[in-house]
Please model this.
Amino acid sequence: MPPLTIPEDKQDEWHKLQEQHAQQRKHLQNTVGQLAVLEREKARNGLTNTELDKLPAETVMYKQVGKMFVQTPGAQVKSEISAETKTYETRMSELVTKRSAYETAIKDTEGQLQAIVDKAVAAGGAE
Model:
């Protein structure tokens, strides 16, 4: 099959759409990466909470603050981990929404690119 030639009047649009598609894919990959990090952190917090629940209530706990460790009540440590987990869940739902939007935008851009290719083929752009 001979190479496809995009008509002159569509080449600017073609290049613009290709750049847009690349940017959308980059944003999607970034969003998916952020989601993966948050999922790992959420799982880690879940495991930590499970282990803390096994300990007696009077267990002395320490929380890292910078380079030092400060004695902290167990209930406070658990509540901070739970609050952090809720923050992760909120951020994850935002990222899932962004991911869906990027996936939709990518499909739309791919459709536009395909339409240009189809017009070029129909116009006899293959030489």
In short: The chain has a mean pLDDT of 91. Residues 6 and 117 are 7 Å apart (CA to CA).
